[in-house]
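go over whats below:
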Amino acid sequence: PDRMKPGPGFRALAPAGLKIIFALLTHPKTAGAPYREIAKVARVGLGTVGEVLADLEERGHLTPEKPGPRRLLDADRLMEEWVTHYPIKLRPKLVGRRFTAPTADWWRQQDLRQYHAWWGGEVAAEKLTGYLRPARVTAYVEGKPERLILDNRLRPDVNGEIEILQAFWAPDEECEPTDVAPPLVVYADLMATSDTRNIETAKLIRDRCIADPHRTG
């Protein structure tokens, strides 16, 4: 019988698949790890890992499991695929809520680490490059965002310039703590806008801050 293939969306481009790709791109050594470890880093169910890796292998993004170890192929191409699909498939699942703040620059004095949260989008871009004056504010929060909302007197507003989303990645304990989301998330946030300065800044972040996974070994 014909082997069942993933539908036109591909397993790796479903929300859980995008979490796995993100884990592989940001922790390249994870590609060769046991499924259980990949599931833990990616924060997905163990049952998802095998079919996503099989899809990536079939489409030329991953070396075969045997003789092993698995490793990513052409990580740049996979990264651009992830960036294209993130705003369509995964970001809408992050329970985004919009708010307005009493003052435009409220975020400048904030260290989000106390809220287990990270800046994304334009604020993160300004912190990483110094190049962009943010018009919109994006924060990714681990757990409930109520303390961040109350302390900063943020008011619900469907057209507000502030967006709060759930963080979907496992914080990297080896890195120095920071209140900025992983550069790949920031890059994807900026590329999803149609703003020319955001897209210029996204390219700066890609060149300066997103390590080439081929260099790790």
